[in-house]
Specification:
mainly alpha; about 0% strand; CopG
Length: about 70
Amino acid sequence: MRTIIDLPESDRETLDALSQQLGISRAEAVRRAVAEFLKSHRSASNEELFGIWRNRNEDALDYEDRVRDEWNRR
């Protein structure tokens, strides 16, 4: 997918210099930056959810079965 973005001239120049130094295209540098941005935000979300059932007295699978039974009764 092609996307048009507006960057300040100084950022574009720095991006071009770094891309050239790494031997990659400007587009590849932007793709990598977007991938890192998305990865860092997904990871934070996963970290927040890890251990969410830790303090519950009910097993997660038992809970799932109970909720599904409620759906089936409707």
